[in-house]
């Protein structure tokens, strides 16, 4: 992979990561067109996921800080409840227990954790199939068609009003299961997750925030998995320089894209993204037959 190819892939990765048009689909299409070996691109993918993760944390730092603070407070309340239990048992007292999930941020933290578990398991189980699907143009093209259809249908969902306190843990589990299937190239994680959240009646602003926050464990897990495959391999500093440059381009592009797309996805319909997915998907499918 040359530095130009790394920069191109990095920019596309960063721009499309938080637009509902599938970053993995675009990456697979470009890698096939430029004949970039997926194995040699693993270091770049790992670094790109790390920089995009840093971009998400930076862009959503206020939300993430609140989530972590409330998580710490909830753990303290759990500790206090254990103390109250032993006090009541020993003193024959009846002190009231503290409510652990006492606000929306504590509930949101749990919803994120529950959704992330099935996603991580499916990603691990399906990783070999995902790698094979990315080695041709047909699979990402079909994945983009699926994304386009889902986005088109999502525009007809009525506006929901549900926020964390209204969401069940079973709903979070279902979202995580469906999100796990978006590991296939062309199937947009943000797009599918948003559509499912809206189908469950999420308030649109909350649906966007939930989908973006879910990218934190997804990106972290993807970085760890890809980095794990690099044990025992070595590359020259020139190659690593290209990878780092491309990864930095991905992170910078992702940071500014998150800021923009947070507002766009909250207020606009998905029709334009759907049409785009159909066009790029059709081009990829056609290319798979023409270049065969």
UniProtKB/TrEMBL annotation:
Q: What is its main location?
A: membrane
Enumerate the subcellular locations listed in this protein's record, separating them with semicolons.
Cell membrane
What the entry lists under InterPro entries is as follows: UppP
Which ranges does the record mark as transmembrane? 43-60, 108-126, 138-157, 210-228, 240-258, 270-291
- Example GO BP: cell wall organization
What is a GO molecular function of this protein?
Answer: undecaprenyl-diphosphatase activity
Its UniProt miscellaneous note says: Bacitracin is thought to be involved in the inhibition of peptidoglycan synthesis by sequestering undecaprenyl diphosphate, thereby reducing the pool of lipid carrier available.
Q: Which domain of life is it from?
A: Bacteria
Q: Spell out the coiled coil positions from the record.
A: none
What is the protein's known function? Catalyzes the dephosphorylation of undecaprenyl diphosphate (UPP). Confers resistance to bacitracin.
EC primary class: hydrolase
Family of the protein in this entry: Belongs to the UppP family.
What protein name applies here?
Undecaprenyl-diphosphatase
User: What is the protein's membrane topology class?
Assistant: Multi-pass membrane protein
What organism does the UniProt record list as the source? Answer: Candidatus Blautia pullistercoris
Q: Which UniProt keywords apply?
A: Antibiotic resistance, Cell membrane, Cell shape, Cell wall biogenesis/degradation, Hydrolase, Membrane, Peptidoglycan synthesis, Transmembrane, Transmembrane helix
GO CC annotation? plasma membrane
